[in-house]
Design brief:
Chain B: This is WYL domain-containing protein. The structure holds 2 protein chains of 2 kinds. Chain A is of the alpha+beta class. Chain A is built from 11 helices and 12 strands. In chain A, the strands form 3 sheets. Chain A has a 5-stranded antiparallel β-sheet, covered by helices on one side. In chain A, strands 1-3-2 form a 3-stranded antiparallel β-sheet. In chain A, a hairpin with a 6-residue loop joins β5 and β6. In chain A, α10 packs across α11. Chain B has 4 domains: about 70 residues, Arc Repressor Mutant, subunit A, CATH 1.10.10; about 45 residues; about 80 residues, SH3 type barrels; about 80 residues, Alpha-Beta Plaits (2-Layer Sandwich), CATH 3.30.70. Chain B is about 40% helix and about 25% strand. In chain B, strands 9-8-7-6-10 form a 5-stranded antiparallel β-sheet, with helices on one face. Classes of the chains: A alpha+beta, B alpha+beta.
Chain lengths: ~350, ~325
């Protein structure tokens, strides 16, 4: 009698998976499900055929997600039943000959992620590199560095699965402009992190256009569609273009700055190409010319300086700063009594 | 906490593949290589010992030299075909390659050509081994920090030298400080230096883009960092004073949702009309005034009322500088 059909305490899932891998690596042709159930240690304990089928399907998915190449073999000869084996050619990690310095870089990169899922994926990758015989890491090349990216959140897992298998996703999304939550159907292309935010770039099916969604504005779960290979991902996805970053077009701002104020802006100043061109500098202020690429962060920074900085040019920067200042000057007066979530409730 | 089955499986397979190539290895060394305790390695060996090909007779099982294990040495005598290291799964390859590409994008790596070369060669070797599937995730870190400042800081860090900073803080005050650099942290859109500040007599975090000049001194660092430098400058803005810091509440319109996402708030309350309220603890009033001032078009209410009044005053003064009364 084989060990597979022994009764007794259930085998731990990790040990059952291990025995399945060993069986499928060593099988001469392929094993049918029935052969797995009857012979592989851990499967005999399944209470019913249904329970076995579920267990086997789940285990196959787990192994494939770990990179184990399980292939199906069409039934031959006396049996029509599909068989399974592990493709021994595809199983192995190619030679990765990392130098100690390169390993130090990889070890540091391993600390980048904040999400549990990404950290798990990363630590498995590191275990596999260790199994491949990677030597000691030398960390002096990257001494003192700590790269870090904030957590992507729950949407990351399903979105990555969808991109890898080119499946459509659906989710509810809170529009920043209106605050309204709407259902969206998207063919996802890339997951991206820029400037502290996580995004998915893809083709919005209802709007038939490229759209960017911020993961933190996804409301609830991301559902992955049933059909793999449902679309093609363009070869050249330009994440930064989709995010609207205007890269390259550098402009200069002419600012009138109160003496000894706005030191951070002064530190970035360049010498004015034509000091006398443009609007005059008010008396008692210094002309400071600052190069910039994106309008909003500079408008925020300048508005934050209040009366210390006046924008002379360009007009769009000036009006963005004025828009903030006018709104701030008109802020609603509040009282202690109205304070939300406080003493009055 | 119980270990996940798939994590343990990867290690079990890894141990066999590694031992098959490496020969006898001490338990301690194996534990260190796979990042677990020696006790865990012994449990793993016990599990491997009873695993094998169907039939599960003694000759079918993975086997170790029992005598050598008693002496703390792991000697594999039968691998049952698990001789090669398992390739990376798609998700693992994505996490690894995206992390390296993100590191390549950090100003601290770009400022030092030698570093960038090492990251590039590691990336080239790993993408060759994992395939191109890894482009699904694309992470960029850091902003437009000055390469000269970063170069000086990285030199000081690797040589263990003190630096003299001219620094402008969020309240627009310039100071000159001698600091012992500990870590250069790139988080999201900015790079920060975590250091021991001799002027303040304590640990401080400095934004690199607010450094007006960086001078590497001919003095060795006096204060070495603790074993583990916990760094989270974004939270530090608010949490330095912890529970004792005053509470502020902002009611914001939907377009300012990033505040709830990027500022470490204590509590977010969504309101029926799509607006929301955030509660935060603020040690630096200048920082809060700036936050309100720059987001004023989307600010619907500010508490305590004192803060609102200060912002209105600052904005009115600025408008008169533009000639608007």
């Amino acid at each position: 009698m084989s060990a597979g059909s022994e009764s007794g305490p259930a085998t731990r899932p990790d040990e059952r998976l291990l025995n399945l891998v060993i069986a499928l690596v060593n099988t001469s042709a392929a094993m049918t499900k029935q052969q797995v159930r009857a012979n592989v240690h851990g499967y005999g304990a399944a209470a019913s055929t249904d329970a076995f089928e579920r267990m086997f399907e789940r285990d196959k998915d787990t192994l494939r997600a770990l990179g184990v190449p399980i292939v199906t073999v069409e039934g031959s000869g006396h049996s029509d039943e599909v068989g399974y084996r592990i493709d021994n050619e595809a199983y192995a990690l190619g030679p990765v000959d990392l130098t100690p310095a390169e390993l130090g870089v990889v070890a540091l990169a391993a600390q980048l992620w904040s999400d549990k899922l990404l950290r798990t994926d990363m630590s498995r990758a590191m275990t596999k590199l260790a199994a491949a015989g990677a030597g000691d890491a030398a960390e002096d090349v990257v001494a003192g560095l700590t790269p870090r990216v904030r957590a992507a959140g729950d949407a990351y897992g399903p979105l990555l699965e969808a991109i890898s298998e080119r499946r459509v996703v659906t989710f509810r999304y809170r529009a920043a402009s209106t605050g309204q939550v709407r259902a969206r159907r998207v063919e996802p292309w890339r997951i991206a992190a820029r400037g502290g935010g996580w995004y998915v770039v893809g083709h919005d099916l209802d709007r038939d256009a490229v759209r960017v969604f911020r993961l933190s504005r996804i409301d609830g779960r991301v559902r992955v569609g049933p059909h793999p290979d449902a679309y093609r991902i363009p070869a050249d996805v330009d994440v930064d273009a989709a995010l609207g970053a205007r890269v390259g077009a550098e402009r200069t701002a002419r600012l009138a700055v109160a003496p000894e104020r706005a030191t951070a802006l002064r530190a970035r100043a360049v010498s004015a190409p034509e000091p006398d061109a443009g609007p005059p500098v008010p008396a008692g202020r210094d002309l400071v010319v600052v190069p910039f690429k994106t309008l909003t962060p500079l408008a925020d920074e300048i508005a934050g300086h209040g009366a210390a900085v006046v924008v002379l040019e360009p007009a769009d920067l000036r009006s963005e700063v004025l828009r903030r200042l006018r709104a701030a000057a008109a802020l609603p007066r509040t009282t202690e009594e109205e304070e939300p979530d406080g003493r009055t409730r | 906490m119980a270990e996940r089955a798939d994590d343990r499986l990867v290690r079990l397979l890894g141990i066999v593949a590694y031992l098959d190539g490496a020969g006898p290895v001490p338990v301690e060394e194996l534990a260190q290589r796979f990042g677990v305790t020696p006790a865990r390695i012994r449990e793993d060996i016990d599990a491997l010992w009873v695993s094998g090909t169907p039939g599960y007779m003694p000759d079918d099982l993975i086997d170790f030299d029992a005598f050598s294990l008693e002496n703390g040495m792991v000697t594999l005598t039968q691998s049952r075909g698990l001789t090669r290291p398992l390739r990376l799964g798609t998700r693992e390859a994505v996490a690894l390659v995206a992390a390296l590409r993100a590191m390549r994008s950090t100003p601290a790596v770009q400022a030092a050509p030698g570093r960038a070369d090492v990251v590039d060669s590691a990336l080239a070797k790993l993408t060759a081994a994992t395939g191109e599937a890894a482009s699904a995730v694309d992470v960029r870190l850091g902003g437009d920090e000055d390469a000269a400042a970063l170069g000086a800081l990285t030199r000081a860090l690797s040589a263990g030298r003190r630096v003299r900073l001219r620094y402008v803080d969020a309240a627009d005050v310039v100071s000159v400080r001698d600091v012992d650099p500990w870590r250069l942290l790139t988080q999201d859109r900015a790079t920060y230096l975590v250091a021991w500040c001799h002027r303040a007599g304590g640990r401080r975090t400095f934004r690199v883009d607010r450094m007006l000049s960086v001078q590497v001194l001919d003095v060795a660092v006096g204060r070495v960092p603790p074993e583990r430098v916990d760094v989270d400058p974004v939270v530090q803005v608010v949490s330095d004073a912890g529970e004792s810091a005053p509470v502020a509440v902002l009611r914001l319109a939907s377009p300012a949702r990033w505040v709830a996402e990027e500022v470490p708030v204590e509590q977010v309350t969504d309101l029926a009309d799509g607006s929301f309220e955030v509660r935060l603890r603020v040690t630096n009033p200048a920082w809060l005034r700036r936050l309100v001032l720059t987001n004023a078009p989307d600010v619907l209410g500010v508490w305590p009322p004192q803060v609102a009044a200060e912002v209105v005053e600052a904005a009115s003064a600025a408008l008169s500088a533009y000639g608007e009364a």
